[in-house]
Input
Amino acid sequence: MLLRKTTFALPLSLIHSSLSFSHEKLRLSPSGLTPQQKRRSIMILQLDEQIDRQSDKSKYGRGINHISADLNEGDIIAYQDGTWYVDGTEVGNGSPATVRYVLVDTVQIVWTHDCEHGLVYGFDLIVAGNDGQVVSCDASGPIIEKGSIFIIQDEYVQCGPEQILCRIPTVSATKPNWKEFTKQAYVAIADFDPEEEMMRA
Output
């Protein structure tokens, strides 16, 4: 699979002397910016983009090949809540299907050759645009764009492996006393439209 280079802009309001971004392929601290760069209204980041989708049959399947076997603490995943399907059978609480996002904390799953049983635990996330305003949702859930900010909530949630739709690549953004972002947030570096991945009957 080819990785594409992604370029997106972040507003200067996020580039503060106490704010830093980190990613396995990028580490940026504003203290390293030149005065000219600090005066610019935006900063451009170039990163490899790749959303890992459970629906990608060339990469994922069932059992040990399921996306849940590839998760790590700190990953951000999208999962289907309300109603979803397992082997064509409707499960869940019967409410309309919607997509939610979670910061993975713990994976407790047993994988066999063709199935997976257990739970993924983590912190619920809300989504804001790069202006800090919470993103409005359509019926499927918030649409993620490059530069969207995942804000960690206090609610600890769980989902089953069959609910997982994808893993979304992010960079970590931290800033002391960043009250509205609870001191740590994650910036998406890929687009994700929940409507494209939701499980249907």
Q: What stands out?
A: The radius of gyration is 18 Å.
